[in-house]
Each structure stands twice: as C-alpha cells, then as structure tokens.
Design brief:
The chain has one helix and eight strands; from the N terminus they run αββββββββ. By secondary structure, it is mainly β.
Amino acid sequence: MKKFLVFLAAVCLFSSCGTGVYTVSSGKADKSELSFVSKDKMALDVTVDGAAYSVNSVKEKAWKKTGNIKKTALNTISIPTGQHEVSVSGKNGVIYSKKIFVSTGEHKIIEL
C-alpha cells in the first residue's frame, strides 16, 4: 500500500508541473534584396510596386555569377518577400520591366 501511495504521489507531482506546449520560431528575416548589374556603373531609377528608389548599378567586371555583390545602400534595395513589379530606368529610358518573385533572405541580382 505504501508503494502505491508513493507512486500516486509521484504521478500527481509530475503531472501537475506547469508543463505545456512551447514553440520557438527562428529562421531568416522576412525580407529580400535587389541589386543590378550592367556593363558600366550607372545611376538608375528603380520602381518596385510604385515605390521609387535611386541606386547605382554594379559594374559587370566586379561581379561573377558565382560570386557575391558587396551590399551597400548605394546599390541594394531591401524589399519584402513575394511577387513584385519592377521597372528600371536609366538615362536612355526604361531598361528593364518585369514581375519578379523573391524568396525569404534572397539577394536577387538583375542583369541589365
């Protein structure tokens, strides 16, 4: 009988601890980045879903398809993930206009 009471006390003690369901979320931030590459460095006027940005393109020689672009405020735009309408204009008019999709944490490089 003593064993049963000890067992019952142990069950009550451990089952009444404040255990519950806890969730922890982690991962990449819900933002993406856009950069532009051209033969020569040039000033660009970029419109993403109606929002206007002024950036510079990265010179093609400074970037290889297998390499990364050094992200700066002058050549990279931070945008939320998802589908976006992007239009890029230079001194000769519209250079690029397309709907794009960017994933979470993606740094999309658009070649002009």
